[in-house]
Amino acid sequence: MTDVVLYDYWRSTASWRVRIALNLADLSYSSVPVDLVAGDQGEDAHVARNPQALVPVLEIDGLRLTQSMAILDYLEDTGRLSLRPADPARTARMRAVLQAIACEIHPVCNLRVAAHAARLTGRDETRAEWMQHFIRPGLVAIERMLDEAGPFCMGASLTQADLALIPQLYNADRWGVDTSDLPKITRVAAACADLPAFQAAHPDAVMPE
């Protein structure tokens, strides 16, 4: 048994970032599914783990950590990962990309927000329209923020930004957002697709049977 436990949902983009990070760190962990569609996140047991009733939650080193970016930083600060550029200027640029995804696109495009928008309009079609309205402009802006050189978001080395971008691209595809005209984003997606840590974290690899 491992003492590292990840409470997650197979299609949660925030959980996906952490799965990639744990794989890159070569950390064995137990996965405990929290079914967001069924409402498991609102059960008392999960709210006791995370008062926000969100995923992921990572139990590690006797701690219970929430918020994917905080978890990535903890893995970095404890020497398990090295995904932040050494140069402060590049780190600031990397964090801008990371936060543009995790703090701008993701919060308005998660399950509960889109579901609420659909309830307000009384139209199920609102979900897709909502997602497309926010995801496409967000990714167009991110395309301009990425390094000209590749193959990754910030150039030759993998960073936290890549761990955020790849799950968001899955979400874009799921909701019919075309990104084929964004060459730098397409380049990053192709480079990350070849990495075992990303492959093992993909929803198709972890979805419940």
Quick recap of the structure?
By secondary structure, this protein is of the alpha+beta class.
Explained architecture:
The chain has 209 residues and is an alpha+beta fold. The chain has two domains: 78 residues, Glutaredoxin; 111 residues, Glutathione S-transferase Yfyf (Class Pi), Chain A, domain 2 (Up-down Bundle). It contains ten helices and four strands, in the order E-H-E-H-E-E-H-H-H-H-H-H-H-H. A hairpin with a 2-residue loop joins strand 3 and strand 4. Helix 4 runs antiparallel to helix 6 and helix 4 packs parallel to helix 7. The longest helix has 21 residues. The radius of gyration is 17 Å and the shape is globular. The two termini are 22 Å apart.
Short key terms for the protein model shown above:
single chain; 209 residues; alpha+beta; Glutaredoxin; Glutathione S-transferase Yfyf (Class Pi), Chain A, domain 2; four-stranded mixed sheet; 10 helices; 56% helix; 8% strand; globular
Explain the layout of strands and helices:
Elements (H helix, E strand, L loop, with lengths): L4 E4 L4 H12 L5 E4 L10 H6 L7 E4 L2 E4 L1 H10 L10 H21 L2 H11 L4 H20 L14 H15 L8 H11 L2 H6 L1 H4 L3
Parallel strand pairs: 1-2
Antiparallel strand pairs: 1-3, 3-4
Helix pairs in contact: 1-3, 1-7, 4-6, 4-7, 5-6, 7-8
